[in-house]
Design brief:
The protein has one domain. Helix 3 runs antiparallel to helix 7. By secondary structure, it is mainly alpha-helical. A two-stranded parallel sheet has the order 1-2. The chain is 32% helix and 3% strand.
Length: 197
């Protein structure tokens, strides 16, 4: 199993723990907002909400991809599938981003519905559809909101991951950085092609 597949499995395990423990928004300041999101545990197939990573061999959740099913992405027994835009919208964008990014937003980034969010993110230049001067990122030029297969080159990732030197403000505006597990979900979705399911 590749490091990427192992990382995705850890991400999905931590998302399950985070989803069970959190409300629709986990952008409260302080170290507790990401402590459970970076944890994963797999021991004999039982789930745990431990804040440290642990693994014990022999469990089915730690199975190595044998590559024998003829697929190019991994066995169905892996349990690892590419993240969907539905997951990204429901887990990250809804309730965290679309409270501000709705119809009439000055940057033109309306994410009030799943369909609008996808249409306005993937392959769209920053400031596309903006009113009243658009965004600082539009005037800076060259920034694309989501670049399929290129998470590091996507403005969405730079903004939510608080990357230094990114045009405009980090997101969420006037809020703490979202949980790393949510950022990793967005990165994994983009790396898998930013497909609309």
């Amino acid at each position: 199993m590749s490091k990427t597949q192992i990382g995705l499995l850890s991400l999905f395990a931590s998302l399950a723990v985070t989803a069970a423990a959190c409300s629709s928004s986990d952008t409260t300041p302080g170290p507790s907002s990401s402590s459970s999101s970076s944890s994963s545990s797999s021991s004999g197939g039982s789930s745990s909400s431990s804040s440290s990573s642990s693994s014990s061999g022999g469990s089915s959740s730690g199975a190595v991809d044998s590559g024998t099913d003829g697929s190019s992405g991994g066995d169905a027994s892996d349990g690892a599938a590419d993240p969907t835009f539905t997951e990204v919208f429901n887990t990250v964008l809804s309730g965290t981003c679309n409270g501000c990014h709705a119809a009439g937003h000055p940057t033109g980034l309306d994410m009030s519905s799943k369909a609008l969010a996808y249409t306005n993110l993937v392959g769209k230049a920053a400031g596309t559809g903006g009113v009243g001067g658009g965004s600082p990122c539009a005037t800076a030029g060259g920034e694309t909101r989501v670049v399929a297969n290129n998470a590091a080159g996507s403005l969405l990732v730079k903004k939510i991951d608080h990357v230094a030197g990114t045009c405009g403000a980090t997101m969420p505006l006037r809020g703490a950085k979202i949980a790393n597990a949510k950022i990793d979900l967005v990165k994994a979705w983009i790396a898998a092609g930013a497909k609309n399911d």
